[in-house]
Design brief:
single chain, 272 residues, alpha/beta, TIM Barrel, 8-stranded parallel beta sheet, two-stranded antiparallel ribbon, 9 helices, globular
Length: 272
Protein backbone atom coordinates (compact mmCIF):
# COMPACT_ATOMS: atom_id res chain seq x y z
CA UNK A 1 0.00 0.00 0.00
CA UNK A 2 1.22 3.50 -0.80
CA UNK A 3 1.97 6.23 1.69
CA UNK A 4 -0.86 7.99 3.49
CA UNK A 5 -1.65 11.65 2.88
CA UNK A 6 -3.15 13.33 5.93
CA UNK A 7 -5.15 16.52 5.44
CA UNK A 8 -5.85 18.72 8.46
CA UNK A 9 -9.00 20.84 8.24
CA UNK A 10 -7.91 23.15 11.03
CA UNK A 11 -10.77 25.62 11.50
CA UNK A 12 -13.82 25.34 9.25
CA UNK A 13 -16.48 28.03 8.97
CA UNK A 14 -19.08 26.79 11.43
CA UNK A 15 -17.34 25.57 14.62
CA UNK A 16 -16.55 28.15 17.31
CA UNK A 17 -14.58 28.55 20.50
CA UNK A 18 -17.81 27.68 22.32
CA UNK A 19 -17.46 24.19 20.84
CA UNK A 20 -13.75 24.02 21.68
CA UNK A 21 -11.61 26.91 23.02
CA UNK A 22 -8.72 25.82 20.76
CA UNK A 23 -10.61 26.66 17.52
CA UNK A 24 -8.35 29.16 15.70
CA UNK A 25 -9.62 32.59 14.62
CA UNK A 26 -6.64 34.95 14.46
CA UNK A 27 -3.76 34.78 11.98
CA UNK A 28 -1.42 33.67 14.78
CA UNK A 29 -3.87 30.99 15.95
CA UNK A 30 -4.33 29.71 12.39
CA UNK A 31 -0.55 29.48 12.03
CA UNK A 32 -0.21 27.72 15.38
CA UNK A 33 -2.81 25.09 14.55
CA UNK A 34 -1.41 24.49 11.07
CA UNK A 35 2.06 24.02 12.54
CA UNK A 36 0.77 21.58 15.17
CA UNK A 37 -0.94 19.50 12.48
CA UNK A 38 2.08 19.65 10.16
CA UNK A 39 4.53 18.58 12.88
CA UNK A 40 2.23 15.67 13.74
CA UNK A 41 2.23 14.42 10.13
CA UNK A 42 -0.24 16.41 8.01
CA UNK A 43 0.90 17.17 4.46
CA UNK A 44 -2.10 19.31 3.50
CA UNK A 45 -3.73 22.15 5.41
CA UNK A 46 -7.35 22.58 4.35
CA UNK A 47 -7.95 26.25 5.06
CA UNK A 48 -10.93 28.35 6.02
CA UNK A 49 -10.15 31.73 7.59
CA UNK A 50 -11.92 33.93 10.12
CA UNK A 51 -11.92 37.50 11.31
CA UNK A 52 -10.47 37.93 14.79
CA UNK A 53 -13.98 37.65 16.28
CA UNK A 54 -14.53 34.29 14.55
CA UNK A 55 -16.67 35.54 11.66
CA UNK A 56 -16.03 33.41 8.53
CA UNK A 57 -14.56 35.34 5.60
CA UNK A 58 -13.29 34.65 2.10
CA UNK A 59 -11.41 37.95 1.99
CA UNK A 60 -8.31 37.57 -0.18
CA UNK A 61 -6.13 39.72 2.08
CA UNK A 62 -7.08 37.66 5.14
CA UNK A 63 -6.31 34.43 3.28
CA UNK A 64 -2.94 35.81 2.20
CA UNK A 65 -2.04 36.79 5.76
CA UNK A 66 -2.94 33.33 7.04
CA UNK A 67 -1.20 31.53 4.19
CA UNK A 68 1.96 33.59 4.71
CA UNK A 69 1.92 32.76 8.42
CA UNK A 70 1.46 29.05 7.72
CA UNK A 71 4.29 28.98 5.18
CA UNK A 72 6.56 30.89 7.57
CA UNK A 73 6.09 28.06 10.06
CA UNK A 74 5.76 25.15 7.59
CA UNK A 75 7.58 26.12 4.37
CA UNK A 76 6.85 22.94 2.39
CA UNK A 77 3.25 22.22 3.46
CA UNK A 78 0.46 22.14 0.84
CA UNK A 79 -2.19 24.77 1.54
CA UNK A 80 -5.64 23.97 0.20
CA UNK A 81 -7.99 26.97 0.53
CA UNK A 82 -11.69 26.28 0.70
CA UNK A 83 -13.90 27.81 -1.97
CA UNK A 84 -16.91 26.66 0.03
CA UNK A 85 -16.69 29.60 2.38
CA UNK A 86 -19.80 29.77 4.55
CA UNK A 87 -23.47 29.24 3.78
CA UNK A 88 -24.91 32.28 1.98
CA UNK A 89 -21.71 33.61 0.39
CA UNK A 90 -21.72 34.54 -3.31
CA UNK A 91 -19.62 32.75 -5.92
CA UNK A 92 -17.35 35.79 -6.31
CA UNK A 93 -16.74 35.90 -2.56
CA UNK A 94 -15.96 32.20 -2.45
CA UNK A 95 -13.43 32.34 -5.32
CA UNK A 96 -11.21 35.04 -3.80
CA UNK A 97 -8.48 32.74 -2.40
CA UNK A 98 -7.92 31.19 -5.84
CA UNK A 99 -6.49 34.57 -6.91
CA UNK A 100 -3.51 33.82 -4.65
CA UNK A 101 -2.38 30.89 -6.83
CA UNK A 102 -2.51 27.97 -4.36
CA UNK A 103 -1.51 24.48 -5.47
CA UNK A 104 -4.95 23.11 -4.59
CA UNK A 105 -8.42 24.40 -3.72
CA UNK A 106 -11.73 22.74 -3.03
CA UNK A 107 -14.49 22.33 -5.61
CA UNK A 108 -17.90 21.35 -4.23
CA UNK A 109 -19.81 19.31 -6.81
CA UNK A 110 -23.40 19.72 -5.70
CA UNK A 111 -25.97 21.40 -3.49
CA UNK A 112 -26.68 19.85 -0.11
CA UNK A 113 -28.64 20.18 3.10
CA UNK A 114 -26.27 21.43 5.78
CA UNK A 115 -28.46 21.12 8.86
CA UNK A 116 -31.70 22.81 9.90
CA UNK A 117 -32.73 25.33 7.23
CA UNK A 118 -29.19 25.81 5.90
CA UNK A 119 -28.65 24.89 2.25
CA UNK A 120 -25.18 24.97 0.69
CA UNK A 121 -25.86 25.95 -2.92
CA UNK A 122 -23.66 24.80 -5.81
CA UNK A 123 -25.50 25.06 -9.11
CA UNK A 124 -24.27 23.41 -12.30
CA UNK A 125 -23.05 26.79 -13.54
CA UNK A 126 -21.20 27.41 -10.26
CA UNK A 127 -19.41 24.07 -10.52
CA UNK A 128 -18.46 24.62 -14.16
CA UNK A 129 -17.29 28.18 -13.52
CA UNK A 130 -15.18 27.20 -10.50
CA UNK A 131 -13.65 24.31 -12.44
CA UNK A 132 -12.84 26.51 -15.44
CA UNK A 133 -11.20 29.16 -13.26
CA UNK A 134 -9.08 26.55 -11.46
CA UNK A 135 -7.83 25.20 -14.79
CA UNK A 136 -6.95 28.73 -15.92
CA UNK A 137 -5.08 29.41 -12.66
CA UNK A 138 -3.24 26.07 -12.57
CA UNK A 139 -4.96 24.91 -9.38
CA UNK A 140 -5.76 21.24 -8.77
CA UNK A 141 -9.27 20.91 -7.38
CA UNK A 142 -10.12 18.58 -4.55
CA UNK A 143 -13.61 17.42 -5.51
CA UNK A 144 -15.77 17.70 -2.38
CA UNK A 145 -18.39 14.96 -2.45
CA UNK A 146 -21.25 14.59 0.05
CA UNK A 147 -23.23 11.95 -1.87
CA UNK A 148 -22.95 9.72 -4.96
CA UNK A 149 -24.64 12.21 -7.30
CA UNK A 150 -21.76 14.63 -6.80
CA UNK A 151 -19.35 12.05 -8.19
CA UNK A 152 -21.55 11.79 -11.27
CA UNK A 153 -21.49 15.56 -11.66
CA UNK A 154 -17.70 15.60 -11.43
CA UNK A 155 -17.37 12.87 -14.07
CA UNK A 156 -19.82 14.67 -16.38
CA UNK A 157 -18.05 18.03 -16.05
CA UNK A 158 -14.63 16.41 -16.51
CA UNK A 159 -15.84 14.96 -19.82
CA UNK A 160 -17.02 18.46 -20.80
CA UNK A 161 -13.58 19.92 -20.01
CA UNK A 162 -14.40 21.84 -16.85
CA UNK A 163 -12.33 19.60 -14.54
CA UNK A 164 -8.92 18.14 -15.36
CA UNK A 165 -8.18 14.48 -14.83
CA UNK A 166 -6.95 12.55 -12.95
CA UNK A 167 -9.29 13.83 -10.25
CA UNK A 168 -8.81 13.85 -6.49
CA UNK A 169 -11.95 13.33 -4.40
CA UNK A 170 -12.76 14.03 -0.76
CA UNK A 171 -15.67 11.94 0.49
CA UNK A 172 -17.32 13.86 3.35
CA UNK A 173 -19.49 11.32 5.12
CA UNK A 174 -21.90 11.87 7.99
CA UNK A 175 -23.55 15.06 6.69
CA UNK A 176 -25.90 14.08 3.85
CA UNK A 177 -24.71 10.50 3.25
CA UNK A 178 -24.18 8.05 6.08
CA UNK A 179 -20.68 7.31 7.34
CA UNK A 180 -20.29 3.56 6.88
CA UNK A 181 -17.85 1.10 5.34
CA UNK A 182 -20.54 0.09 2.83
CA UNK A 183 -21.10 3.64 1.61
CA UNK A 184 -17.40 4.49 1.48
CA UNK A 185 -16.73 1.38 -0.62
CA UNK A 186 -19.61 2.37 -2.92
CA UNK A 187 -18.12 5.85 -3.37
CA UNK A 188 -14.63 4.51 -4.05
CA UNK A 189 -15.98 2.05 -6.62
CA UNK A 190 -17.79 4.92 -8.39
CA UNK A 191 -14.81 7.15 -9.23
CA UNK A 192 -12.78 6.91 -12.46
CA UNK A 193 -9.74 4.67 -12.60
CA UNK A 194 -6.59 6.63 -11.79
CA UNK A 195 -8.36 8.97 -9.36
CA UNK A 196 -7.15 9.46 -5.80
CA UNK A 197 -9.37 9.90 -2.75
CA UNK A 198 -9.56 11.07 0.84
CA UNK A 199 -12.26 10.36 3.41
CA UNK A 200 -13.51 12.77 6.07
CA UNK A 201 -15.89 11.44 8.72
CA UNK A 202 -17.90 14.10 10.54
CA UNK A 203 -18.16 14.21 14.34
CA UNK A 204 -18.00 10.80 16.03
CA UNK A 205 -17.43 9.18 12.63
CA UNK A 206 -14.02 10.83 12.15
CA UNK A 207 -11.73 8.12 13.47
CA UNK A 208 -13.77 5.05 12.43
CA UNK A 209 -13.86 6.36 8.85
CA UNK A 210 -10.16 7.25 9.03
CA UNK A 211 -9.31 3.69 10.05
CA UNK A 212 -11.43 2.22 7.24
CA UNK A 213 -9.95 4.64 4.69
CA UNK A 214 -6.42 3.79 5.76
CA UNK A 215 -7.10 0.05 5.49
CA UNK A 216 -8.63 0.54 2.01
CA UNK A 217 -5.54 2.35 0.73
CA UNK A 218 -7.06 5.83 0.57
CA UNK A 219 -6.12 9.04 2.33
CA UNK A 220 -7.58 10.75 5.38
CA UNK A 221 -8.81 14.16 6.54
CA UNK A 222 -9.21 15.10 10.20
CA UNK A 223 -9.36 18.39 12.06
CA UNK A 224 -11.47 20.79 14.06
CA UNK A 225 -13.68 21.59 11.06
CA UNK A 226 -15.05 18.06 11.20
CA UNK A 227 -14.69 17.05 14.85
CA UNK A 228 -13.49 18.73 18.06
CA UNK A 229 -13.09 15.59 20.21
CA UNK A 230 -10.07 13.33 20.65
CA UNK A 231 -12.31 10.65 22.21
CA UNK A 232 -15.85 10.54 23.54
CA UNK A 233 -16.25 13.48 25.92
CA UNK A 234 -12.58 14.50 25.60
CA UNK A 235 -11.96 17.75 23.74
CA UNK A 236 -8.83 17.77 21.56
CA UNK A 237 -6.27 20.33 22.68
CA UNK A 238 -5.10 20.97 19.11
CA UNK A 239 -5.41 19.78 15.54
CA UNK A 240 -2.04 18.18 16.15
CA UNK A 241 -3.61 15.76 18.63
CA UNK A 242 -6.15 14.66 16.03
CA UNK A 243 -3.42 14.10 13.43
CA UNK A 244 -1.29 12.20 15.94
CA UNK A 245 -4.15 9.77 16.56
CA UNK A 246 -4.46 9.09 12.82
CA UNK A 247 -0.70 8.51 12.61
CA UNK A 248 -0.94 5.93 15.40
CA UNK A 249 -3.78 4.13 13.62
CA UNK A 250 -1.84 4.19 10.34
CA UNK A 251 1.25 2.71 11.94
CA UNK A 252 -0.81 -0.11 13.45
CA UNK A 253 -2.20 -0.83 9.97
CA UNK A 254 1.18 -0.68 8.24
CA UNK A 255 0.80 2.62 6.35
CA UNK A 256 3.69 5.09 6.23
CA UNK A 257 2.92 8.80 6.32
CA UNK A 258 3.57 10.90 3.23
CA UNK A 259 5.64 14.06 3.45
CA UNK A 260 4.33 17.13 1.61
CA UNK A 261 6.62 16.46 -1.36
CA UNK A 262 5.54 12.81 -1.46
CA UNK A 263 1.93 13.99 -1.35
CA UNK A 264 2.67 16.27 -4.32
CA UNK A 265 4.00 13.29 -6.25
CA UNK A 266 0.93 11.17 -5.42
CA UNK A 267 -1.47 13.96 -6.40
CA UNK A 268 0.44 15.21 -9.42
CA UNK A 269 1.13 18.66 -8.00
CA UNK A 270 3.97 21.00 -8.84
CA UNK A 271 5.18 23.18 -5.98
CA UNK A 272 4.71 26.86 -6.80
Amino acid sequence: MGKLIITAAISGAEVTKEHNPAIPYTVEEIGREAEAAYKAGASIIHLHVREDDGTPTQDKARFKACMDEILRRCPDVIIQPSTGGAVGMTDLERLQPTELGPEMATLDCGTLNFGGDEIFVNTENTIKNFGKIMIERGIKPEIEVFDKGMIDYAIKFAKQGFIKEPMHFDFVLGVQMSASARDLAFMVDSIPQGSTWTVAGIGRHEFPMAAIGIAMGGHVRVGFEDNVYLAKGVLAKSNGELVEKVVRIAKELGREIATPDEAREILGLKKK
